[in-house]
Each structure stands twice: as structure tokens, then as C-alpha cells.
Amino acid sequence: MSYGVSGPALFRRAAAFVDKILKGAKPADLPVEQPTKFELVINVKVAKALGLTVPPSLLARADELIE
After folding, report:
1. What is the pTM of this model?
2. Is the dihedral angle over the CA atoms 41, 45, 51, 54 positive or is it negative?
3. Beta partners for 42?
4. Contact (Cβ atoms closer than 8 angstroms) between residue 62 and residue 40
């Protein structure tokens, strides 16, 4: 199970920063931003191999299930 920042969302934000810098903004003047999109990924196959039972409510909330 992993709960962390969405990679594609980070790349989009990085592209926005690059765009601002290429348009002449000084990197020191750009605000520091924190991630806003997080993902929950559950590896069901490994959980079963370890003998763990993942509650259905948690499976329903997951953004991605690895089977």
C-alpha cells in the first residue's frame, strides 16, 4: 500500500514553473507550492500473499488497485 503524491500532477506543476521561468520570471520570485493531489495505491496480490485482509471500504477508496 502506498499513499503519496501523484506523479503526473507534479509534472504538470513543474511544467507550469518552467513556462513562467522561460517567460522571464525569476526562479527566486516564484512561490513554493505543496502538492495538492495524492493517490492511494493498494497491491492486492501482495496483500493476499502475506495473508492480509484489506477492508472493502479501503479498496473502494483506492485510486489504483494492483491485482
Report:
1. 0.72
2. positive
3. 65
4. yes
Please name every residue paired with 41 in a beta bridge, in sequence order, or none if there are none: 2, 64
How many residues can be counted in the chain? 67
Query: CA torsion 61→62→63→65, rounded to 10°?
Result: -140
CA atoms within 13 A on the CB side of 37: 9
DSSP-derived secondary structure letter, 3: E
The per-residue pLDDT for range 3-51, each reduced to its tens digit, is: 999 999 999 999 999 999 999 999 999 999 999 999 999 999 999 999 9
* Planar angle of CA 61, 59, 57, nearest 5 degrees: 75
pLDDT for 31 equals: 94
C-alpha to C-alpha distances, 8 to 11, 14, 25, 55, nearest whole angstrom? 5, 10, 24, 28
